[in-house]
Specification:
Elements lengths: L5 E5 L6 H14 L4 E5 L5 H11 L7 H25 L3 E5 L2 H11 L4 H12 L6 E6 L2 H7 L4 H4 L2 H18 L4 E5 L4 H16 L3
Parallel strand pairs: 1-3, 1-4, 2-3, 4-5
Helix pairs in contact: 1-9, 2-3, 3-5, 4-5, 4-8
This protein binds P1-(5'-adenosyl)P5-(5'-thymidyl)pentaphosphate.
């Protein structure tokens, strides 16, 4: 059985990742792919428990502790969900993954990039996406679209601007893997571009 394809969706808050992950998965299934849609933090019962911890806005969470919680959730998710699905030849569509950690905990919160990368590499065991769709959006527009993560919203627009710039630097550094999609357009226009990138990049049809 050939290994499955690992696709991630990334971007600032409210960019449309969850919506587009579901739409992309449906399109892939219509083409005969076995697909799982999953998310980070989460995607596994323990990792979802860590997500609930991270979402609690009452705690003054230290930025290093926050990083390690995101990575603990990822290690569990990779080991119990993503790697087994890929080994079965399934396509994995994941709503956020390692690039979010580099963008939020390093570019946003200021932790050293090399250390965050090394810890992330340890958590994933070196697993990287085949293709990443970076849904790029003005941060004020994105923050208006969403509302679940009170902790992240409270960090302010400047934090989220650094995150967006961090994502764009990652895309510039790895243009083959990370493809930037303008997410300010209507849903269907964004979905059509994503389909074209996936079709062309991974020869899906
Ligand atoms: N985080 C995560 C880290 O700091 N480090 C990490 O390592 C990881 C993995 C959780 C938080 O954790 C942080 C980042 C986040 O702050 P999350 O649950 O993915 O991550 O949180 P959000 O990105 O905030 O998720 P949202 O669900 O709010 O945003 P999405 O998924 O980008 O957007 P979506 O699809 O839910 O859409 C939001 C709304 O916008 C509308 C949708 O209908 C919906 O109402 N919408 C559009 N409207 C108009 N035009 C479009 N093109 C639209 N696309 C979507």
């Amino acid at each position: 059985m050939p290994a499955g394809i690992f696709i991630t969706l990334e971007g600032p808050e409210g960019a449309g990742k969850t919506t587009q992950a579901d739409t992309l998965a449906e399109w892939l299934r219509e083409r005969g792919h076995g697909v799982i849609v999953t998310r980070e933090p989460g995607g596994d019962p323990l990792a979802e428990g860590i997500r609930a911890l991270l979402q609690n806005p009452e705690w003054a969470l230290d930025v290093r502790a926050e990083l390690l919680l995101f990575l603990a959730a990822r290690a569990q998710h990779v080991a119990h969900v993503i790697r087994p699905a890929l080994a079965q030849g399934r396509t994995v569509v994941c709503d956020r993954f390692s690039d979010s950690t580099l963008a939020y905990q390093s570019a946003g919160s200021g932790l050293p990039l090399a250390e965050v990368r090394a810890l992330n590499e340890f958590a994933t065991g070196g697993l990287a996406p085949d293709l990443t769709l970076l849904l790029d959006l003005d941060v004020t527009l994105g923050l208006r679209r969403q509302g679940e993560w009170a902790r992240m919203e409270r960090r302010g627009v400047e934090f989220h601007r650094r995150v967006r710039e961090g994502f764009l630097r990652l895309a510039a550094a790895e243009p083959e893997r990370v493809r930037v999609v303008d997410a300010a357009r209507p849903l269907e226009a964004v979905a059509a571009e994503i389909r074209a990138i996936v079709d062309c990049g991974l020869r899906i049809s």
